[in-house]
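Sample A.
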Amino acid sequence: MRRIQFIEIHEQPWCPPFLRNGITDALQFGFNRFKMYAPTAAILRRALDSTASQSIVDMGSGAGGPWLDLARKLHEDSPDLQIWLTDKYPNLAAFETVRAGSENHINFYTASVDATNVPLELKGFRTMFTSFHHFSPEDARAILQNAVDAGQSIGIFEIPRRAPSTIGLTFVFVLMLSVCTPWIRPFRWSRLLWTYLIPIVPLVLLFDGVVSCLRTYRPQEMREIVEKLTAPEYQWEMGEHSTGVTPITYLLGYPRKCVVS
């Protein structure tokens, strides 16, 4: 199954904010409620310890991604760790909810952040969850090169995979999110309208979810991207972590002076 570079509706500039926020709110709820990225805590803890970083800059955060759950796990060993959420289209209301729920361990950058050109004042271990596949190989390479040029380590984590089983799970995931919509916070009557009476949110969520699977990079494709970087002092690690419900594809990049073991 070859990777395709198609569009996801909620990432387009013309996508109305109510729809984009409805999609990212649902994903954020699902990631944390079902702890889908919980297995990455061990990888992140190992990387943070080895790079001696006390700050994480998350890119393409949507409505907060899996950070409420992950932050609790990481703060058990790193109570001073600070996490910053950023996005090209920041969902500030959702970010504020996540910050309040994290007891201010999670903060957010209010301005738009392009992952290929991160502001220099945002320093820390960079992460991307379920967003790297949005980018073409050229833009994906630019994201990694920007981290290298800034001297920052980076971790990419993706649950979508180009596999029939994962595409099938996408249908189940969207169904569960639709059933759980009344429990998504902050509660909004409009969310019920666009989920049940006019079901545009679950339809777009399903479409974008399937497209996400078809757009994801396999570890070997990530390696091909990395090989074209100008990064002689960087070490790269990529693979699939398979302790959860579905394997999580990951890519780690860090200066060679940092030994991740």
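Sample B.
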Amino acid sequence: MRLAKHLAHAGVASRRAAETLIVAGRVRVDGELVRDPARAVNEQSHVEVDGRPLAGPEARVVYAVHKPIGVVSTARDTHGRPTVVELLAGETRRLYPVGRLDADSSGLILLTNDGALAQRLTHPRHEVPRTYRARVAGAPVGERALGALRGGVALEDGPTAPARVRRIGSAADELELTIREGRNRQVRRMCEAVGHPVLALRRIAIGPLRLGALPPGAHRRLAEAELRELRRAGRAP
């Protein structure tokens, strides 16, 4: 494993910040000062940062979080807005969100220190499905609009892949959509393109994991069985 990645997995800093530490001469491997972030290390390597030995890689954790509206999906925000990481008061590990959820949207987001799982869930080639509930304007939503969403919608950055869509609710003003892409504000843009702008949007599932009854602002740590299912989510590489 590369030294910078090893430091990041141990919770010292982000990979980029770890590279800066190494280049600055603050890291030793087996007593030797190392300035190359690509230096190979293993579990037997004795690594020190500022003279202090690492305790070893952190345990991998994943939390499901119900992000409320107005909270941003970043670890920190330069404008002082509340972040999803701040919802996990008392958690000392360096966690980061898996993907994004707009500040004006709510619902399921994952926080983790497991880079491999985050890569699996966000890389486009895996096409991990995400399911949303959208309350839209211009009800009732007709078959023509549903057909367009199911077949793919032409957006300014290209046509979308087909989505699974169904109407829910007696007023026919709410849709459940499942997409396998991760474009910026994609569900909102799709609905607007077919004449039904989104009034409220909530993500209810990522792959096999569902939001369920988790209240807004709450979180829970995922069990091993849930993690195994998430690692199998999407299409095979």
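B remarks: The chain has a mean pLDDT of 92. Residues 15-23 form the longest helix (9 residues).
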